[in-house]
C-alpha cells in the first residue's frame, strides 16, 4: 500500500498545486496582488543556497511551491488509503498544509506567525491552501478508491462510529498496513 500511496500522492499533490496556482493567478489578476517569493526564500534558507534579496527567484519559488505540494500529497494519499476520504479529510489536510508552511517559514525566519498578518492576506492564503487541500483530496481519494475501501472504511461498515464492542477488521492481503 505504501508504494501505491507514494506515487499516487505525488500525482495528487502535483494536481493540487496546479489547481491552487491557477486559482492564485486568477485572484492576482483580479486583486493586483503581487507574487509572493516566500517559498523561494524558505527554500534558500533550508538548503543554504545563496540569497539574492534584490532578485525575484522565480525558479526556486516554483521548485518549492511544486515540491512542497507534491510531497505533502503523499500524506493525503496515505490518509485516503487508510480510509480517510472526502471533504472532512480534505479539511483536516488543509490544516496540515498550512501548518507545514508555517513551520518552515517561521523556523527559517522568512515568515511571521499568521496571527500577525493583515486579515486580508491571511484570508487569501487560507483560501488558496484550502483549494490545494480539496483538489489534492479529490485526486487522492479517486486514486485510492480504485483499490477499494480502506481499513477505516471497512471498520465503519461493520458498525459505524468508534465503538468498544467492535474490534479491528481482519487483516487482509494487500489491504491496510
Layout: helices, strands, pairs:
Elements: H1 2-31, H2 38-47, H3 58-82, H4 87-107, H5 119-145, H6 151-158
Q: How would you sum up this structure, described in words?
A:
It is a single chain. With 177 residues, the chain is mainly alpha-helical. The protein is built from six helices and no strands. The protein has helices at residues 2-31, 38-47, 58-82, 87-107, 119-145, 151-158. The longest helix is centred in the N-terminal third of the chain and has 30 residues, at 2-31. The N and C termini lie close together (7 Å).
Provide the descriptors you would attach to this structure in a database record.
177 residues; mainly alpha; 6 helices; 68% helix; 0% strand
Approximate strand percentage: under 5%
Radius of gyration: 19 Å
Shape summary: elongated
Average pLDDT, rounded to a whole number, is: 91
User: Count of helical segments?
Assistant: 6
Structural class: mainly alpha
Order of helices and strands: HHHHHH
Could you describe the largest sheet, including whether it forms a barrel? Answer: none
What's the β-strand tally?
A: 0
Q: Helicity level, as a percent range?
A: 55-70%
Distance between the termini: 7 Å
Low-confidence stretches: none
Amino acid at each position: 500500500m505504501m508504494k501505491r500511496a507514494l506515487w499516487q500522492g505525488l500525482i495528487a499533490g502535483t494536481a493540487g498545486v496546479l489547481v491552487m496556482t491557477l486559482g492564485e493567478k486568477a485572484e492576482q489578476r483580479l486583486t493586483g496582488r503581487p507574487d509572493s517569493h516566500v517559498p523561494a526564500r524558505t527554500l534558500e534558507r533550508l538548503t543554504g543556497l545563496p540569497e539574492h534579496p534584490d532578485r525575484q527567484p522565480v525558479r526556486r519559488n516554483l521548485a518549492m511551491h511544486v515540491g512542497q505540494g507534491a510531497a505533502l500529497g503523499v500524506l493525503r494519499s496515505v490518509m485516503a488509503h487508510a480510509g480517510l476520504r472526502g471533504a472532512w479529510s480534505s479539511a483536516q489536510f488543509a490544516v496540515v498544509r498550512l501548518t507545514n508552511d508555517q513551520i518552515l517559514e517561521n523556523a527559517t525566519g522568512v515568515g511571521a506567525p499568521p496571527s500577525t498578518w493583515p486579515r486580508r492576506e491571511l484570508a487569501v492564503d487560507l483560501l488558496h491552501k484550502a483549494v490545494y487541500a480539496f483538489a489534492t483530496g479529490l485526486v487522492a481519494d479517486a486514486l485510492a478508491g480504485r483499490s477499494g475501501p480502506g481499513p477505516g472504511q471497512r471498520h465503519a461498515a461493520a458498525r459505524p462510529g468508534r465503538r468498544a464492542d467492535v474490534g479491528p477488521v481482519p487483516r487482509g492481503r494487500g489491504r491496510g498496513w
